[in-house]
Amino acid sequence: MSGPLSLVGAGGETGGTASDTAGVAAAGGVSAALPRLSGRRRAPSWAVTDPVAELAERLNGPCAAAVHPDEIAAVLESEGLTEEQLTGVYGHPDIFSLARELFAIVPRAFPEPEPGDDPWRADVSRCVLRGLTFALPGVAYVLGGRWAGGGGGPFGVSRAVAAWGAAALVGWGWNQGLAHRAHLHLLLHHPRTAVRCLLSGAAAGALLATLAAAAVAGPSRLPALAFAAGQSLYVAAATVLLVLGRERSLLHVLAPLSVAVLAGASALPSPAVAALLAATVAAATTAAVTTALRAVPADDATPEGGSPRRGWRALRRPRNANGTPDGGAHTGTGGGTDGGARRAWRALRRRRQAPDGDAHAGTDSDETLSPYLSLPHGLAGLAGGGLVVAAALAGEFVAALTVSMGVAEWLLYRFRSRSLRALRRTGVRERLLRRAWPVLVACLLGYAAALAALAGAEALLVPGAPAWDTPHLGVLLALGATLWLALLLQSCGRPWTGTCVLGTAAVTAVVLLAAHTAPPGTVLVEVCAAAATVLLGVATALTGRVTTHR
Description:
Strand content: under 5%
Radius of gyration: 30 Å
Shape: elongated
Largest sheet: none
Number of helices: 22
Helix content: 55-70%
């Protein structure tokens, strides 16, 4: 049961319902510490001769701060009231009856919580940098477009382009789930397991994406297949670097390729272009592996990690049951072998029961996290990627949408931060809802304005970009709002809701586009607008709940 006191906000929760008077009486020093006034004192107008009113005045502090009558009963029990006093003086058969009357006549006056740290503070420069790292890989398609020719592909595109799209979809879905899983291990203070998960998962994801491209392109189109393999390997390496917070390393890798494209590298012969792209992929892979190995703690004395050689030795070192920084494991590498949701639940329960949140508490199965935890994030990446690929094939603004992901991330953090601030200022759900939904609308409108501005820049600077008109802007805004609201639901602990809406929208769009029921832009704007409307309604109701922001 929750009361108004439970609405003080995340990090400032000060109480709950007391179902056992003895348990609350353990804090009986509250009433003992209250000054007992001796001598004559002036009684308020409502407490002229009533003993219950006099008792309410004397115990006004504990009674006003109580969220349930049982808390007042515990205080009365610590006062040592006898049955004779209860029946003879106060006219109540038991202590609980008296506590209920005191709870009814004393107005609630809860203590203000102390301001806590804001976990949703975001670095604007870092969000902008991440947006650049999301967009700069697109320059590779300027060079690789020479291998996109041919026909025979679905939706009126060549088999090479279809193969690149298939590799991108598999990579987006797989790596989003992988990133979520690695972040879980990092939150559990398992850096060694997180690195194993990243390295093994990234390699597996690159292989799966390449196989998907090969299944679509066929063995006869080796240049296009090689480009898809490089694309898959780069996406995997970028996932490792972004999870470990090395956006600048990724930007350094992409800078030479961007400069080469601006300098006219697209006019170079195919062998030179292939060498440039291969060098970029090799640099990204090397940076990812080196950064991951540096993040592995060599031992308990150096938890921050060391050189790549030490990290590699630490990864190969056999793990025991209680001495490793990760808590150890006997089977699997990284997060590859899992024991299911039941074992993961038992591991998390042991971790919660560890004293003082010990980072190394528990046994080997502490690192056994169920794949189910990351499954909705991977499916959301697959569904969202399907909508983006459909928009790209329809000739819509995709570069602007990609660059805007940095702005979307910052606005997401800003919304959660301002909602937490609103929660700390209010204590009633209706008031929180009135404060939260204007913040949600403001952030959504701010993201729409950023999308429109970036689309205008794309229309001016990128050759062959779509026109900056109402139909194309409608598709961009509807798709951007859908993706942002789905990310918001993920951050609020409802990943399956956003995944189901995104998946339904993606499947509906593919079916309608394949049936040629309407122009591609019309299909996308209608499907994405409907999905955004559903997500907005869910997000408004969800962010108005106190438990969402704890």
